[in-house]
C-alpha cells in the first residue's frame, strides 16, 4: 500500500510504515503474561543489531572481551539481588536457584540436625543392601564420609558437604547439564545427515561447543560457590555483599563460551 501511494520504496516504509502496526497488532494478540518477556527479547535483539551495525561501520570500537566484562557486572548484580530478601521473583529467581542451588539462599530451611539425620538414614539404608551390592554401598559410604568430613564454615549452609566437595559437585552437575543441552541442540542437524554421513554421529558427543558450554556453566557455579565459601571463612559471616564479589568473579567463566547475545539479554532482564 505504501509503495502504491508513495510510488517508490523508502527505507522507513517497511519498518515504521508496515512493521510497526503489524507488531502492535501481534503484541495485542499475545498473552499478557508473555508480552513483557517478548518485548525484552525483541529490544535486546534490536540493541544488538544496532551495536553490530555501528561496529561494522566503524562508529564504535568494540572493547576486547567486552561481552565477558558486561557479563561479570550483570552476574554480580543478579546474584546480589538473588541473595537479597525479595530481590528477585518469578522465573529469574527459580532459574538462579536451580543453577547455584538453594544452599546459597539466606532463608535456607534445612537445619544441620535434619541434614545429618538424612545422611545417617541413607547410610543405614545402604548397610541393609544385600551382599551383591556391598561394593556399591561401601563406595557410597566412602563418598559420604569424604563429603561430610572436611572444612566447612559455620555460616555455610551446605550441611551435607564440606566446602571443597560442595564446589566440585557444583561444577560436575552444571558441566553435565551444559554438555547435555548442547548435545540436544545439535541432534536435529546431526540426524539429518546420519544416513549420508554416519561419521557425523560422533561429532554429536565429541564437539568443542559441547564442552565449552559445560565448562562455562560448571566453572560459573564452582567459582561462585568457592568465592562465597572463601568470603565466609575470611569475614566469619554470611553477607549478601559476598554475592557481588562472587558473581563478578564467576562471570569470568564466560571466557569459555563468549556470547554477546547472552550478555545483552541478561542486561535487558536485569533492567526489567
UniProtKB/TrEMBL annotation:
Pfam families: TMEM135_C_rich
Residues annotated as transmembrane: 9-29, 68-84
All copies of domain Transmembrane protein 135 N-terminal, residue ranges: 2-55
Topology with respect to the bilayer: Multi-pass membrane protein
One cellular-component annotation, GO: endomembrane system
Broad class of the protein's primary localization: membrane
Subcellular location: Endomembrane system
Protein keywords: Membrane, Transmembrane, Transmembrane helix
PANTHER family: TRANSMEMBRANE PROTEIN 135, TRANSMEMBRANE PROTEIN 135-RELATED
UniProt family annotation: Belongs to the TMEM135 family.
Described function: Involved in mitochondrial metabolism by regulating the balance between mitochondrial fusion and fission. May act as a regulator of mitochondrial fission that promotes DNM1L-dependent fission through activation of DNM1L. May be involved in peroxisome organization.
Protein name: Transmembrane protein 135
Organism this protein belongs to: Jacana jacana (Wattled jacana)
Gene assigned in the entry: Tmem135
